[in-house]
Design goal:
By secondary structure, the protein is α/β, with parallel strands linked by helices. 36% of the residues lie in helices and 20% in strands. The chain has a 6-stranded mixed β-sheet, sandwiched between helices.
C-alpha cells in the first residue's frame, strides 16, 4: 500500500512538471514524433526517487573502521570531492522519458488551458460495439476460466459427496466444476465528429509555417478525440486549386503557385454534403494560411461560401493565420470585418511556435 502511495505521488510530481512545461511541449514538434498508438513519450527533467545505495566493503563510514563516538565523518576513502577527478568519455545525464497516454495529456492540457467540455450534437450513424461479461457458463476457452467460481463449485461438490476432509483441505476441481465467463456484444450509441483540415501550400507558405500547422493539428486532434467516441479527419491542400489528400501528403506538400482560398472552401462543402450530414455529425473545419489571397473577388466568394455553406453546418470554424515574410496577412482582417460577431467563427494569429499555446486556447476555449 505504501509503495502505491509513493507511485501515485511520483505521478503527481510528473504531472506537475508536464503542466509547467506544457507551453514548451506545445511549441516543440519533437513530441509528435514520439507519438504511439495511444500514448506519447514526454521528456521531463530527471526526478530521483530515494533509494538505498551500497558501497564496497571496508570503505569506511558509519559503524566501520577506527574512531570514537562524536568523531567527524569524512567523505570516505576513495571518493573525490566536488569538482575533482579526471574528465570521462561517457555521456552525461539525460532527461527522463515517461509514457503518457493521449487521454492523460488531453486532461493536463484541459486543466492548464482551462478548456470546457464540448456538448456534442447528433449521433453516429453506425453505433459502436463492445464486449461485456455478463455471467458464467460451464464451457469456454481457458483464457476465460473463472478460477474462484471453479474452485467454489468443486468445494460444493466435495462437501455434498463427503469427499472434503477439513484436516486435509485439498480441493481438486473436475471438468464439470469449471466455470467460464460469458460475454456478449452490445451496441453503444456514440456521438461522432469530423475535423476538416485545410492548408495553403502555395509558395508563400514555407516549411516553418507548415510545421506550426502540423503541431497545432496534433493538439487539436488530441483534445477532440477525448470529447468524441468516433472521430474522422479529412485533409485539403490548396494553392490556386484544391484537392483532398492523406495526412502525410498534407504535411509534406509544397507548391509554387498562387492562392485561391475559395477552392478549398468549395471542396470542404462538397465533402460535408456527401459524407457528413449536420444533423448527425459534429463538424470542425480548420483552415490555416498566411493570409494571402489571389484577389478581392475571391475573398468575396470565400465570405459567401462561409456564410452560406460552411458555418451553418459547423459546430465551429477555426481560421489560423501563420505569419510569413511572404504573405500579406489580409485575409484575417476581412474575416473580422464580416464575421466579427459570429460565435462559430474563431480567429487566431500565430506569429511563431511560442504562440501555439495561446492559439490552441483561442480555438478550443469556447467548448463548441
Amino acid at each position: 500500500m505504501k509503495i502505491r502511495q509513493d507511485h501515485n505521488r511520483f505521478k503527481e510530481i510528473v504531472r506537475g512538471r508536464i503542466k509547467k512545461e506544457l507551453r514548451r511541449y506545445m511549441a516543440n514538434g519533437e513530441l509528435i514524433g514520439r507519438q504511439g498508438q495511444k500514448e506519447v513519450r514526454i521528456p521531463v527533467p530527471r526526478i530521483d526517487i530515494p533509494r538505498f545505495r551500497y558501497g564496497s566493503k571496508d570503505q569506511g563510514g558509519v559503524g566501520q573502521g577506527e574512531g570514537e563516538v562524536g568523531d567527524s565523518l569524512g567523505d570516505g576513502d576513495g571518493q573525490e570531492g566536488p569538482g575533482q577527478g579526471e574528465a570521462g568519455e561517457q555521456e552525461g545525464a539525460k532527461e527522463l522519458e515517461l509514457s503518457v497516454t493521449l487521454d492523460e495529456l488531453a486532461e493536463i492540457m484541459a486543466e492548464e488551458l482551462e478548456l470546457p467540455n464540448i456538448q456534442p450534437r447528433g449521433e453516429q450513424r453506425i453505433a459502436s460495439t463492445r464486449a461485456t461479461y455478463r455471467g458464467l457458463r460451464p464451457v469456454g476457452p481457458d483464457a476465460l476460466r473463472h478460477m474462484k467460481r471453479s474452485y467454489k463449485e468443486a468445494l460444493k461438490r466435495m462437501i455434498s459427496t463427503g469427499e472434503y476432509d477439513p484436516d486435509n483441505p485439498v480441493v481438486i476441481p473436475r471438468r464439470e466444476d469449471m466455470r467460464y465467463r460469458s460475454w456478449a456484444e452490445e451496441e453503444i450509441p456514440a456521438t461522432n465528429a469530423v475535423i476538416v483540415y485545410m492548408m495553403d501550400v502555395s509558395g508563400s507558405m514555407g516549411d516553418e509555417q507548415k510545421e506550426i500547422v502540423r503541431i497545432e493539428s496534433f493538439w487539436i486532434d488530441t483534445w477532440l478525440r477525448t470529447q468524441y467516441r468516433g472521430i474522422e479527419s479529412r485533409y485539403i491542400i490548396h494553392d490556386a486549386t484544391a484537392r483532398e489528400v492523406d495526412q502525410h501528403t498534407f504535411f509534406h506538400t509544397r507548391e509554387s503557385g498562387g492562392t485561391m482560398i475559395s477552392s478549398a472552401y468549395r471542396l470542404c462543402i462538397d465533402i460535408l454534403e456527401a459524407d457528413y450530414p449536420a444533423s448527425e455529425w459534429n463538424i470542425y473545419p480548420f483552415h490555416f494560411s498566411d493570409g494571402d489571397n489571389w484577389s478581392v473577388d475571391d475573398t468575396a466568394q470565400c465570405i459567401q461560401l462561409l456564410r452560406g455553406g460552411i458555418l451553418p453546418r459547423a459546430n465551429m470554424f477555426g481560421y489560423g493565420q501563420v505569419e510569413s515574410p511572404y504573405g500579406s496577412g489580409q485575409f484575417i482582417k476581412d474575416l473580422r470585418e464580416h464575421f466579427g460577431k459570429e460565435e462559430r467563427m474563431v480567429l487566431s494569429e500565430i506569429k511563431n511556435r511560442d504562440m501555439i499555446f495561446d492559439s490552441i486556447k483561442t480555438f478550443l476555449g469556447k467548448g463548441m
